[in-house]
Structures are given as structure tokens and as C-alpha cells.
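Recap quiz, item 2
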Amino acid sequence: MSADAVPSVSLRNVNFSWSSSAVPLFRGLDLDVTAGETCCLIGPNGSGKTTLLELILGWRRPTSGAVFSEGRPLERLPSRERGKTMALVPQEEHLPFSYSVLEYVLLGRAPYLPPLASPGVHDISLAEEALGGVGIADLSKRAVSELSGGERRLVLIARALLQKPRILLLDEPANHLDPANRERIIGILSDLKASGITLLMSSHEPDMVTRLADKVVLLYGKGPLQVGRADEMLVPRHLADLYGVKARIIEDKGRRIIVWGE
Amino acid sequence: MEPGLISEKKRRAAFAAVSLLLAVLVFLSAVWGRYPEPGFTGFSVLKENALARALLWNIRLPRILCALMLGASLAAAGTVLQTVLGNPLVEPGLLGVSQGAAFGAALAILLAGEALWHIPIFAAFFGLMGLGLSWMLARRFRYGGSILRLVLAGIVTSAFFSSGIGVLKSLADPRSELPEITFWLMGGLSSADWSAVARTAFPVIFSLLFLCIHRWRINLLSLDDRSAFALGSNPGRERGVLVVVSVIAVAAVTAAAGVVSWVGLLVPHVSRKIAGADTSRSLPLSMILGALFVLLCDDLARSLLTGEIPLGLITSLFGALAFSVLMSLRERIPRER
């Protein structure tokens, strides 16, 4: 990578608080994520992982400071352009109506369709491809409301991938999943990482972080961040500071496993 | 095929069947009535009887057109509002529009007496004011999410206008004004003529066309705001535009026909049952089904008894019955919010 490459995501001196009287959640935040990098946000509950993802998405505006996507200030990015650049995989999504999986995933084509258009044959084949890409092509005619938690997560990933984003934001992608589904998601994410897409995810799964992350951001909540290479950040001292629980790290067949407690 | 989801082939067949049914019903409604004799008017009668021809052209035809616009508008607005507010229990009346329009009409009757042309203008104005008031209150409320706030504000606005209607009714002359207000509150198309068609057609055609060409994108707004935003939309602005356009159609038809309830709640549910949740299919079907339902109810309203039965009573009766049957059918219920 050339030295002057524009970072995928950068935050400059970002401050954020929920209201003018509240204690700021973020103060003077600086962060650069280079293109193709996988960056994991870890921290205890309430430390602002989801909020940081929302700031990067542009859904929330910083109280002061600036957020850039590929060098452009977020607020100057047109909605449609933003939808082609960045996609979000939320933890859960409320569904008032019973869409089929295909109808639901097709919404990922929205940034590419003119405002008055409906998806056509080409869009449908792209959506089927995206479903195939995460291994759930057989679910396309099922109702989303009937799916299991793991299947729903895969559907949300397929929809985000249909946006063909260069930056993918994931909010705790493996949360509440059984080991088989978690492995499946980790597999999909490492394929995406290999394809050169920039990944930013919040996670409570240190195992997932140790296997995927190039860069780790430690969020202590109501204070500064600590950013560094994954192997520098995931050390017992930092983890104990972060969660207030003692941690040991065991190496097994090249994998780093975190053991919590005494 | 998976249980519960309808195949593409069946959807198309249902669409064709409903369209055909509507065409047949329009034709039958034109020759159905109580003059010269109760029942269907034959071609030979039309050929010989000039009054029967005039009746068909000047009374039945504009009335049929008004019924079609009324049904299509209420059902389309119901589908759009339910989708963009992410709430299957919303109907146009819930945002203060119907009660506002009813208040406006009652006020017009009280102020202007028999001069009928005041009523639609007052109804449309106060209908839109009802929406504006709901919107303003929703912005001030500090409870719940944006959708809950809007629905709560709609309930408050509706209550405000209903009490206003109560006051107007108590002030009205019980012999002349009160019966007129009451009939208007129950809805009906007995006054529908070509001028009513002309007044209503422009806003209705504009709104329905607008909603129809945006029919796929409406889906995006059924997601929560953050997800819609992440998919490259501007949920606040797009939702606002769709709500206002829907309400324009509702205000226009309410001005012509009074308060006709249940159509905007029932028809979208039936339509989703047949066509699925995707608004690119369920919205057009909803318009056709709405037109069909209201036309059928109006045929009954004008022919069951020698006098006119208020249309709103018939739509409420059949709407409530059909809705309770629909809700008792086994269905996959989407997760609660």
C-alpha cells in the first residue's frame, strides 16, 4: 500500500455526548482505519461500541470534530453514495411485516436503483448470488420472521453485501449464536477480509477478535481510546483494565485463547 | 412451496381475478338500482327511457367513479401509512386526518348552512390541519420512538377534534343542521356528481400515481430508521413526503364522501395476505381491492332500502366482520417490536 493512501475511515478529534449536560462518551477521539484492514472494537457493555459504529456510519453526528469516509467528510456524502460505500449489519432488526428472504435481501439494491425503479431480473440474480455467498440460497422463499437467530444474521449479512460496500460495519456479528453459526460467520468474515473489504466490528468474542483483527480499539467508556495492533492490544494487562477481570492468554496451535478469572 | 408464502403464479392469478372482478362490478353497478324498477336495468329500457339514461350518466356513473377513488385512496393510504410507520394497526383516521376533516365539515354545515360547496374545502383544510397538529405534537412529545410519538399525537389530535365535533353537534339546529352533520359523519356518496368527481380526481390521481411509482422504495421505510439510513435513504424526509401525499388523497375523498372507516385498516391486511408484504405488489392490489370493497358497499348502501343507508355504516359492519375473520385465520405472526 502506498504511503499516501487515503484511509477508509478516519475520525478527527471527535467528541460525542448524549446531551449537552451529560458526561461526554467520547473525548478527542482520533482513529484511522486503512483500506482492507479489519478493525475490532472491544469494550464492556455501555462503553459506546455501537455508538462509535453509528458515528462512522453517519447515523449520529459528533458533538464536535469530523468523521471521514475515504477522505470525504460524511455530511457531504450524498445518501445514495453513502449506501454504496458503507453497509451496516445490525444485531437485530424489527420486522413489522412478513417479508420473504429474497424480498428482504433485495432492499440492499436500494442505493443502486433510481428512486422510481423497482428491482428487475438483474437485481434478483444479484440478490440470489449474495444469498449463495453466505450459504443460504435455499432460504430465499422463506419468511424472514420464521428464521432462527443465526439464519437472520446471515440474511442481514447477505443484504449488506448486496450493497457491494467497500466498508462493512458489523455490530457484534457473532452475539447469541451457537458455535456452528459462529464458526460460519467467522468463515464468511475471513473470506471478506481476504477479498480486501474494510471491516469494522464491535465484538464481545475475544476469540473472534484474535482470529480476524489487524487492529484493535479498546473502549474504556467515558475516556480515551487505545488503538493498536491486535497482538499488542490483546494482552492480559489491557484486558484486565478493560473489563476489570483478570485474564490469561493461552496459545494453542497458533490460536490465542483468552481465559478469564483467576 | 414454503407454507404461508404465496407463489408468483398464484399472485398473478389473484391480481388478474381481482381486476376482472372490479371491471364486472363497475358494469353491474352502472345498471343496478331502484329506477325504473328495483334490480338491473336492461338495455332495452335504457334505449327507450331517456330518464333512465340520464340517471345512469348523471347519477350512477359519477357515483361509481367517486366510490372507486374513495376505496383506492383509503386503501392505498392505509397500506403506505402502515408500512412507513411500521405498524399494521395504523389507518388514515389514526393520524387525526379523518376527525379533523369531520370537524371541518361540521363547522362548514353550521356556518354556511345549506351551501354544500363549503363542506369539501373545510373538510380538506381541517383534515390536513389534523395531520399538521399530530406532526407538531409528535415533535414535542418526549416519550417512545418517533413512530409511537406520531401515533400517540394522532390519538390526542383525534380526541381533540371529536370533542369539537360534539360541541358543534350540541350547537346545531336539531331539525336541519344536525341530521346533515350526522349523515356526513357516517359517510356516504349520495351527493356525488360530476363536479365532485372533478374536484376529487386531480388530488387523488396525483397522490395515487406518486405512491404507485414509489411503490418499491416504500418497503425501505418499514425498517427501523437506522437500517433504512444505512441502505442509502433519508428516512425522515422520505417518510414525511409519503405520509403527506397519502393524506392529500384521504383529505380529498373525505371531503367528497365524509368519514368512511375500516377500509384503510382492513384492505391492506387482505392485500398483504394475497400479495405478500412487498409494497411493490401489495400497494397496487390494495388500491384495486379498496375500490372493489367500497363500490360493493355503496351498491348495497343505495339499494338495500328505499332510503339511503350511510356508506360508513356498511363499510364498518363488513369491515369489522371481515377483519375479525382475517385475524382468526392461522398466520405466521411477525415478531413484536
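Confidence is low (pLDDT under 50) at residues 333-337 of chain B.
Strands of chain B lie at 32-33, 39-40.
End of item.
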